[in-house]
Amino acid sequence: MRRSSLRHAGAALVWLALLAPGAHAFQAQYGPLTVTYVDPRDRQQLAAVYKAWETAARDLKALGLAPPAKVRIEAAGHAADFAARTGEPVNIAASTRGAVIRTQRLSALAARGLLPTTIRHEAFHTAQPAGLPRWLAEGLARTFSGEAKTDPRTPTGLEGVPDSRLDAELLNRDPTRLNAAYREATIRAARLVRARGWTGALKW
Ligand SMILES: [Zn+2]
Q1: Which N-terminal stretch is annotated as signal sequence (predicted)?
Q2: Of 82, 110, 127, at which residue does a domain stop?
Q3: Number of H helices and number of E strands within the chain?
Q4: Which of 49, 92, 102, 180 is the one with CA 20 to 30 A from 26?
């Protein structure tokens, strides 16, 4: 009886430790990058993370942007853990604040073919100029990452809305409307890049 309840208590502690926001079991270092992850299988994705980061950093430099000297990537253990760490909906791939990038479990992103574009997208956010409106920051991040290439060409339904309303839609995080808002932001950002080049678009 006693032994079984102890074992139970032990299991509960491990579970809590895994779920606690910011908890991590493993850490890896690569140049300016520190990567922490909870699921040991994520180790197999580290090389892909490093490669995506290096390419992104090089391409950002070519645009006159520089990622911070030190960046931390924190991979969650599972979707609910990601939501707890970020306050984001569970279907969002990653979220960046300053030099800290929080992502879904790396193997989950890789299985869906999203790992390299997610790293590139978030790398852009770490290096973007201060003061960009939200729609432009997201649109440029999705243009830079290559995510826009697989967007459907169908109307977004948001063609007529002002940029400020697009910002509000992106801030709202309504999972049923978020995709259209990201897509519309990307169309507008890409249009700006075509008209003014990256340098012009970044000087918004
Ligand atoms: Zn973003």
Answers
A1: 1-25
A2: 127
A3: 8, 5
A4: 92
At 42-90, the pLDDT tens digits run 999 999 999 999 999 999 999 999 999 999 999 999 999 999 999 998 8
Residue 27, beta-bridge partner list: 36
Distance 10 CA to ligand 1 centre (A): 38
User: In angstroms, what is the span from residue 134 Cα to ligand 1's centroid?
Assistant: 9
Distance 95 CA to ligand 1 centre (A): 7
For 86, the domain range is: 20-127
What is the whole-number distance in angstroms between the Cα of residue 201 and the centre of ligand 1?
A: 16
Could you tell me the CA-to-CA distances from 30 to 53, 117, 140, 167 in Å, in that order?
10, 19, 26, 35
